[in-house]
Design goal:
- The chain is of the alpha+beta class.
- The chain is built from four helices and seven strands; from the N terminus they run αααββββββαβ.
- The longest helix is centred in the first third of the chain and has 67 residues.
Length: 196
């Protein structure tokens, strides 16, 4: 009987060691998943910020074009922006998420947008898996700008035009009686969302 008890102690120690190893391995994977989720959140936010900055540029350009009576329906299509402020807008959101970002123009299903590639400033952290202490999480996301309003192609942009927007909203533009601020909110004219 005593010899049986003596044999169970090494087995118990061995099993405890295996369980501890498995627990630490799960913890390492949880750390990696947490870092990856943080990177994805930063990428989503940065891509949306870049696209929202471009949407604001579209609305500003649309207002100026209507005031000048110069080809404003082209702005309503959603492809006249330069995207000059997209990187700065994305940088600000990435910094809030302790990450760095690189933004490039993108197109998804014919809609313009931006692709954000993010790398976290923080690492996965120390774990039993070698190399994680210097591993940064990376992720990417793409956000697009989609026009929400349609103008009859036969309409004369120099005369009053009514156009329909998603959600049943109707907007009337009269270039002869237009002031800055007459347009509805940017979200009525263009939607910004992450690409599928």
């Amino acid at each position: 009987m005593r010899s049986d008890r003596g044999q169970t102690l090494p087995i118990y120690i061995w099993m405890t060691g295996i369980l501890l190893f498995v627990a630490f391995a799960f913890f390492a994977f949880a750390q990696a998943a947490s870092a990856r989720n943080g990177a994805q959140t930063a990428a989503d936010a940065a891509a949306l910020a870049a696209a929202q900055d471009a949407r604001d540029e579209l609305v500003d350009g649309l207002e100026l074009a209507i005031g000048a009576g110069d080809g404003w329906p082209d702005w309503l299509v959603g492809d006249k922006f330069t995207g000059d402020g997209a990187q700065a807008a994305a940088d600000a959101l990435a910094a809030e998420n302790d990450s760095t970002v690189d933004v490039t123009p993108a197109e998804v299903n014919g809609y313009p947008g931006f692709r954000a590639e993010v790398e976290t400033n923080y690492t996965v952290g120390d774990s039993i898996i070698p190399g994680t202490e210097s591993k940064h999480a990376k992720a990417d996301a793409t956000a697009i700008i989609k026009p929400r309003c349609d103008v009859d192609p036969s309409s004369d942009p120099e005369k009053a035009v009514e156009f329909k927007c998603d959600g049943g909203e109707s907007v009337e533009i009269d270039p002869d009686d237009f002031e800055l601020g007459d347009l509805p909110d940017a979200s009525v004219l263009f939607s910004v969302h992450l690409a599928d």
